[in-house]
Amino acid sequence: MLLRFVRETSTFLVVVLLVIIPAGCTSSSIVSTGNVKTLKVALVVSHSQFCDIDANINHFEQFIKRASQQGARLICFPEMALTSCVMDPAMFDCAEKIPGPSTDRLAQLAGDYNLYISMGTTEKDDTGKCYITQFLCGPNGYIGKYRKHHQAPGGASLGLAEGDSFPVFDIDGFTLGFNICFDGRSWDTIELMKKAGVDIIHHPHGNLLDLGADAEEWTRGKLYYLPARAIYSRSYILVNNSAGDTISPIGTSSFCGGAVIIDPLGQAIVRTTQKDRSEMMVFATLIKPVSALIPQGEVKMNLRYPSSHHPWP
Fold first, then answer.
1. How far is residue 7 from each of residues 32, 235, 274, 279, measured CA to CA in Å?
2. How many domains does the chain fold into?
3. Against a cut of 0.85, is the pTM above it?
4. Does residue 29 form part of some domain?
C-alpha cells in the first residue's frame, strides 16, 4: 500500500513517501489493486479568530490552495472553524443560516480549486435554534450538512440544539459521514455510521488544553478510544483540532492542535507528533475496499473460517 504523507506549517514543508507492507508479507502477497479506489485527503489544524468569518475564510484559502496543489480531493477543517469553537454566548451573534453567505463563499472556493471542503460553523435555523454544524461543499456547489448529535456540557449549558439525522455523502466513490467532537464519546453515533456503510468519518474537534498540552499529547489521547470505532465501523476516521489561542469576550481559549488519521484496521497512518499547538496540514491517500489492506492469505483464511473474523466489506 502506498501512502503519501505531507506536513505543512507556516514555516516549513515536509514531504515523506511511505511504502507500508504488513510484517511478514512481500509486496506480491497484497491483494491486487485492480479494483481499488483511492482518495487523497487533507486534514487541517487551523487557528480561527472569534466570530470573524470573513477573516477566517480568507485565512483558510491558503490551506485550500495548497491542498489543491498537492492533489487532494477532500480538505477537512475543525469543529466551528468559521466562528471558532469558543463556548461564548456571543457566538450566537455570528451564527448563519446554512446554506447561506458562508456556504456560498466556500462553494466558490471549492469550484475554483476543484475539491470538496468540509467546514465547521455555528448555524442558526429559521426558528432561531443554533447548532454546531459541519457542512460540505464541492466543485459544483453546496452539498449538505450535519448537525452535532451530542452536545458537550458547555454547549448544552448555552442551549445549543442537537441534530437528529446522519446524512452521508459521496465523494469520488467514497461514502463520507460525520461525527463532531463529543459525538465520539457515544456508541450510537458509530453504530449509525456502520449501518450507513461509510468509508470515511470526518471527526472534527475543538478541544482545549484539558485534553492535551500539545498536538502530540492530544492525538495520543484520541488513540485511546478511536481505533476501536474505526475497526468496528470498518472506516477511516479523520480527526483534527483547532490550534493556538483565540480571544473572545470571555477571555482566551487555548486549543491543543493536532490531527490523526486512523484506518479501518485501527492503525494511525498519519499522526502529528510535534510538541506544540501550531497550525499544520497533513495528507494521506485512502483506499477501498478494506480487503485491499489485507494480505491475500488472511482473506482466504477468513473465507475458510468466517466465524473467526469480522467479514471484510
1. 29, 23, 11, 10
2. 1
3. yes
4. no
